[in-house]
Write a structure and sequence with these properties.
heterodimer; A: alpha/beta; D-Maltodextrin-Binding Protein, domain 2; ten-stranded mixed beta sheet; two-stranded antiparallel sheet; 19 helices; 12 strands; B: mainly alpha; MetI-like fold; globular
């Protein structure tokens, strides 16, 4: 009887609601926002109860992969775009095209086209975009003023924010003490995927358009990578790995003038930075164009969900106007994916730092999608040692490093993906 | 009920657990090692994964070389360190229990936390190690970013655990050696070194043997530190076997290849253990044999 009661009880929740699980990761601020959105959805949808399933960022990918492979994934999952194509290839996610077609409230042309495009794998729309945005630069106004340097945002507006200017700024803002130890750096090394933006601005590429071959060996790519390497080893205006370890020269310390980062860092900087003024500007122009790139996270519905209708209602809510206002206009975790919101006064004219939000709007409107395909982890691991060599100064010549990197990546991509 | 049936029933929960959680996955992975499995499609490929690993995969051999080198240095050093520490903590001095507790404490720190701690210690510019070396006029090294030093840094870090379980086993072994041997040796005029060489070491040889086997198995399973501290870099200089296996399985979704790697690791450890058993006849002394 007890077993029968348990089975009956387990089958239908006693509150009569549809129960959903939503899996996400993030820092303290992001998880607090996720909870706020879940609470708001639960309040407005009394027939559904969403439970936020938080997993630490360091374990997130592994947990997610195992859950999808074992068909125990939560109903709705936030997936980093780095992992999305690889998982989407395996048909773990519901195809949303048919669901959206039946929903008159949801119109794909309300969103930035690239934010929709990024969610398409094998011709199927397998997710919707959240935390969509592009790379920008933060700058420490105090350091720049001390060096008598003009505001980069003003330079950008005049079309003078170039890689040459960035280098000039970075060199002027780097300081050493009497013993030769650095006390302040001009710039951080552009991490992945920011160096893809640099490649693009110099006319180079990471991979060919079909993602089947490396494009790092071209003269333009080599020039871009050499520019990055020189920041650290020739001009010594970017911290080495050990100097920069444990965020010793993080932007929030006030010891870094220019920083490649996402606007999502703003809420953290607003909380931590009290001693200096700061703002944002777009990434610089290069000899062959801009450095704008876009990247989001995908909100996906597990193919195994028992409640696709309720799951869709929740997903729609997370990139609906209410949640996008919380996430992107109030907290500016990234850019809204809805064009109307991203172009609204509320987003472009905020009352708190950063003020130059059109840098984000411009990046999102003009940015390119990153070359992330199903074999992205292998490409990155293969590239890693050669980039290590170049960025750690063991190999000073970018042409040599990129030749080896290209050969290694081409070899991996030519092999059978499953073996 | 027969005694044997009762005994079987008592062991049944463990047997069921073993079959479901150990034997089942092992047999599954053996099967998978003969397939191409990417978490969605499975295709039988015979011995292709093994052939590929042994003949076409430079990173497989690199990871083996890294792991072997690490094991060859870290296991003997760890055993010598643990034994030395156990001998010191076996001395009848005031505060003996406090010392034992203090030396055991580091082994209670989770591997991930100690990896982060060591990351600071090895920092080129602000790390304790380079600072200490600098006090003696010795220039520091880029411990975790220069491939010449990374593996050495991991060996040094492995000594963090010398006060752990291995030391406790040595301590128990030392306390099991009869005082009468030492008294007889002293009467015969044996120096402390000779007492150690001809009494302590032979008497402890089964314990040393046990620790040696477990040490090698443990060294081939190093994962957390490399995953957190270096990610296998720089230039794959810390690409430990377990990390390489993990990447193939959970990052590249090459479950067949990763399973083949797991079985090759099993075979390698079997061979190493067999060699140790074979050599043990020459240097391990059991009390039962003496009788």
């Amino acid at each position: 009887m007890l077993a029968a009661a348990c089975i009956a009880g387990c089958g239908a929740p006693p509150d009569g609601k549809v129960h959903l699980r939503y899996m996400a990761w993030g820092n303290v601020q992001q998880l607090a926002l996720e909870q706020r959105i879940v609470d708001e959805f639960n309040r407005l949808n009394p027939d559904v109860k969403v439970k936020l399933f938080k997993v630490p960022g360091s374990a997130y990918r592994n947990k997610m992969v195992v859950m999808f492979a074992s068909r125990t994934a939560p109903d709705v999952v936030r997936v980093d775009h780095y992992d999305f194509p690889q998982l989407a290839e395996r048909d773990y996610f519901m195809d949303l095209e048919a669901i959206i077609a039946k929903d008159p409230e949801y119109k794909l042309n309300d969103f930035y086209p690239l934010s929709v495009e990024e969610c398409r794998v094998k011709g199927r729309l397998q997710g919707i975009n959240v935390l969509f945005g592009g790379g920008i630069m933060f700058y420490n106004k105090k350091i720049l003023a001390e060096e008598g340097l003009e505001d980069p945002y003003e330079l950008w507006k005049r079309g003078e924010w170039t890689y040459d200017k960035v280098l000039e700024y970075a060199k002027k803002c780097t300081k050493f003490d009497r013993s030769g130890r650095p006390t302040q750096f001009g710039i951080n090394m552009p991490p992945m995927p920011f160096y893809i933006g640099v490649l693009q601005a110099f006319g180079g590429k990471l991979l060919s358009d079909d993602l089947q071959k490396s494009a790092l060996n071209s003269p333009e790519s080599v020039r871009a990578m050499q520019w990055i390497s020189n920041l650290r080893w020739r001009h010594k205006c970017a911290p080495t790995p050990s100097q920069g370890a444990n965020s010793a020269f993080g932007f929030e310390t006030g010891k870094l003038a220019l920083s490649f980062d996402y606007v999502g860092m703003s809420s953290r900087f607003r909380e931590l930075i009290t001693r200096f003024d700061w703002d944002i500007c777009p990434m610089p122009m290069g000899p062959k164009g801009d450095s704008f790139f876009v990247k989001g996270n995908q909100l996906v519905m597990s193919r195994e969900t028992k409640n696709p209708d309720a799951a869709w209602r929740f997903m729609k809510f997370v990139n609906g106007p209410i949640a996008e206002r919380i996430l992107y206009i109030q907290e500016r975790r990234q850019s809204p994916t809805r064009m109307a919101l991203a172009e609204s006064e509320d987003f472009l004219k905020p009352k708190a730092k950063p003020f130059n939000m059109d840098a984000v709007a411009l990046t999102v409107a003009k940015g390119k999608i990153l070359p992330i395909g199903p074999r992205w982890p292998e490409v990155m691991q293969t590239l890693g040692p050669e980039l290590d060599n170049l960025f750690a100064g063991r190999e000073k010549d970018a042409a040599t490093a990129m030749k080896r990197a290209s050969d290694a990546v081409d070899k991996v991509l030519s092999e059978d993906p499953g073996l | 009920m027969k005694r044997s049936t009762a005994g079987f029933l008592f062991t049944l929960p463990w047997l069921i657990g073993f079959l479901i959680f150990t034997a089942g996955p092992m047999l599954t992975s053996l099967y998978l090692s003969f397939t191409k499995y990417d978490l969605s499609n499975m295709e039988w490929v015979g011995t292709r994964n093994y052939e590929r690993l042994l003949t076409e995969e430079p990173l497989f051999w690199k990871s083996l070389q890294v792991t072997f080198t690490y094991a060859i240095f870290s296991v003997p050093l760890g055993i010598i360190g643990s034994l030395a520490l156990a001998i010191l903590l076996n001395q009848k001095v005031r505060g003996q229990r406090v010392f034992r507790t203090l030396f055991y404490l580091p082994s209670l720190v989770p591997a991930a936390a100690s990896a982060l701690l060591w990351q600071w210690i090895f920092n080129n510019d602000y790390g304790l190690l380079n600072y200490g070396l600098g006090m003696f006029g010795i220039g520091g090294a880029e411990w975790l970013s220069d491939e010449k030093y990374t593996l050495g840094a991991f060996v040094v870090m492995s000594l963090w655990g010398i006060g752990g379980g291995r030391m406790v086993i040595f301590l128990a072994g030392l306390q099991g050696i009869s005082e009468s041997y030492y008294e007889a040796a002293k009467i015969d005029g044996a120096s402390p070194w000779k007492q150690f060489r001809f009494i302590t070491v032979p008497q402890l040889s089964p314990v040393i043997f046990f620790n040696l086997i477990l040490g090698f198995i443990g060294a081939f399973q190093v994962f957390t530190q490399a995953y957190i501290m270096t990610g296998g870099g720089p230039n794959n200089s810390t690409l430990f076997y377990a990390l390489s296996l993990f990447r193939n399985a959970f990052e590249y979704f090459k479950l067949g290849k990763a399973s083949a790697m797991a079985w090759l690791l099993f075979l390698i450890l079997m061979v190493i253990t067999a060699i140790q058993f074979w050599s043990s006849k020459r240097w391990v002394h059991y009390e039962a044999e003496a009788k």
